[in-house]
Amino acid sequence: MTTNIKVNVVTENMIKYCYTCPEAHKCDTEEKCITCWEEKGIMKKEDVEETVTTEKLLKLYAE
Questions:
Q1: Can you tell which superkingdom this protein's organism belongs to (predicted)?
Q2: Where in the chain are the domains?
């Protein structure tokens, strides 16, 4: 089984990192948020677009 976790990752990161960011108003698209996260070293774009197996998904949930 595979699933695309982009929506979950973007939503989770927006809650974690954008909510408290003083410049969050500048990120009016997901692409701008992802670019910002890359620049700040929070995550890489390929992490968002990755299709994962159930095994990888369970490991992510366990972290």
A1: Bacteria
A2: 12-62
